[in-house]
Amino acid sequence: MKIEEIKTLGELKKAGYQSKSIKDELRDNLIENIKNKVTTFEGIHGYENTVIPELERAILSRHNINLLGLRGQAKTRLARMMVNLLDEYIPVVKGSEINDDPLQPISRYALELIAEKGDDTPITWLHREDRFAEKLATPDVTVADIIGDVDPIKAANLKLSYADDRVIHYGMIPRANRCIFVINELPDLQARIQVALFNILQEGDIQIRGFKLRLPLDMQFVFTANPEDYTNRGSIVTPLKDRIGSQILTHYPDTIDTARTITSQEAKLDSRQTESVYVPDLAKDLLEQISFEARESEYVDVKSGVSARMSITAFENLLSTAERRALLSGDEKTTVRLSDFIGVIPAITGKVELVYEGEQEGADFVANALMDEAIKTLFPKYFPKIEKLEKQGEETPYDDLISWFFNGDGFELLDDFDDAAYKAKLDEVKPLDALLADYQPDIDKRDVYFEKEFILWGLVQFKKLSKYRYSEGLQIKDPYGSYITGL
Fold first, then answer.
1. CA distances from 182 to 67, 118, 251 (A)
2. How far is CA 2 from the centre of its chain?
3. Cα(397)–Cα(462) distance, integer angstroms
């Protein structure tokens, strides 16, 4: 007989079912995963040697957990994935509001039902996917919402006195008995509501409107919090922090490769986009580097953080920009261009919190500055470094390219160029071919034109060329051209 086919308390006892607390479930199943080399937190990248080991140690210690970190660091996802460590099914007294264990009932309803029906008490089975409850802490949350309150309508319908505990309407936490309960953004919870959690976390009893109910709730609490919240909106009261077993610090990806993996995994792309738009590796690196630059920028509020969601939405915007351009020009397939990065600006401006200096400059200026810094950072990894101070008359790898612009009339790349026109325009700049041949000889052919454009933008950042953006596209010329021509 399958375990979920057991329908009564008597059948459950005959099957030899043993009750287990939720923390023991998590612990035992984690031990099995570790022994069998099974990855518990699949799809979480960059935490293999930091956050995940700490989280596993907290679970083995049967602790309630606080995940502390800036926005977009997968805190809630980690909490949700703990569900995978629960047993597939657990038995529940049928009709119980608080998921009573048939072998260890705690509610008046379950105790009276078992006293009346004995081994014939009906039971149901609760799947692990239904054993997760989540509440976003907002200032309007009340004790009644999360703990419970007296229900006057129930009292009237059942003709009960307010002194009878059957008039109680249970809140979210009692209803999540034997479940993982997550409170997101804990500091946003008013202090008096946090105080209401004290006994639940430590002693296991709750009070509702004067009723002192000895309800030893069996729960795994996971809290998430942003360090910035401690000063901006509220704080976690000290006695509550004292009752949380483990506080685990999360962090942003340490490397571009990890960031790229996360973005690729999380970006929601239409299959037609991925089929029609090719993204060079350098473009992916550049996109992630923008986030790294933002986290160090003097214009961005570092305490607020720069979410991984910025790179994800920026990547989606980048592909959409290239897709739209191809649709307008009639190209069936296209490759992302560096000039397409103008399309990621809305994804940046909506995701970064600016300090006073950034507000003064404006969000668009900051977004463009972050892209410029990203290009400047990555450029020496692909092509020879350009020194700030160069000896007069000393030859550099870029002399031919700079001479080409000095002797020419400038160079324009229009946004509405189709692929053929775009490539033909870049092919006019012959010194670019020599630079690629010398320093990127093994480049993928599909990446050639992106890297050609990257060289030009790189020289702009190092003041070897100048760039002017206007509504139809951009113009690149030698840095002194504006003085000579009067433009």
1. 10, 35, 19
2. 39
3. 14
